[in-house]
Amino acid sequence: MSDFKSINDFKKGSLRSYPYQDPTFLSFVLLFDFFDREHSPLLSKETEEYLTKLAKENPDYEERLEALINFKQALATINNAMPWYWQSIEGVERLQKYDPLKNYWGGDDAVIKITTLESINLTIAGLMHLYKKAVFDEGKWVYIIPKNLRKFRMYIYVTEVRTIKNNSRPKINGIPKPGADALKGFPDNINPSIGIENGNNDISGQYARPYFMFELKYCQFDMMTGADVFAGLSKNPEGQAVGELSIKYEKLNRVEGRVLNGIVKDTINTNNLSPAPESENYVADGLEGWLKDKITDKVGNAVASAKDDLSRLVQDKKNEIVQKVRDNTVNRIPTFENIFQNALKKADNATDINSQTRNVGSAIVANAYDNVPPTGTAKQALDEAAERALGNVND
Question: Based on CB atoms within 10 Å of each CB, which residue in 27, 133, 268, 284 is the most buried?
Fold first, then answer.
């Protein structure tokens, strides 16, 4: 049995075939469907067109229409640019509890509860204020928008909260592994080249990041929620205002997952997307492209460290061959340093750092110098420009 193997076999990193064994910190991403007219009428154009017709017949509905348009814009902005307003959610575990005797997912328990932060411009309270104003007439105490047009579709992704490092780095190709085969045809069988490999390619980025995705249909905002910020108001509040917003749903339409990376081969969901930071999606355009991105800091490290990494990799590869072949034979191998330097030179030319510096200087002269003497420094020019821009603010 595997339990009785040597303990060394189970040390982290020893089982190279199963590298993804780090603990995970799970979080969530919410996606709302703003486009499907049939399955998401509230957030698409369907409900908006309904209110537009009412507004043409009765101008009193124009304010309701404006509230709906602003609600959709606010919801999209919060979810896209400020998702931290959604602090936590409850009810997702229910989506993984299958009851064979119950084929309906709705009911009183079919609720996703979202704990929310509040801000100084009353973002969440304002969002629900717009929603209530758009769908409900508090004077007549009736719904303005019928039930079917208050529905929408949403998706909940559950995935790692941290960014999975894009481990792009140089890889030496064209060298046989040390051993008897490496000596056959040596050194003609050695054609060194340098490529770029992302060590986390199987687990990072929108096409590889592990996730669970739940598609919920016939969702509706619960108007009874979103009012917690008005509870227990104090003249001397001790903490930040928080609240809760609930979304009811009637159907779990689909569950997808990209899981067990590195253990099983996923042949079904390989093209499905999952939420991932831009840095995870980075793909190097060969060695030159990678070096250029190093210089422009897209990869996050200085080009000097890239050269050090590559030098170490080169030396390691050399040492492997030295063990099997004499030193004077190794000297006949094309030098990796030359390959690297040539690529680096091309990358320097592509980024043209010196030219960029000159362009910045020219921009300063054209935009900021004005009456500053040509002999003045760039700092003087910027100081003068800042002082003029401030006007009399210090008077």
Answer: 284
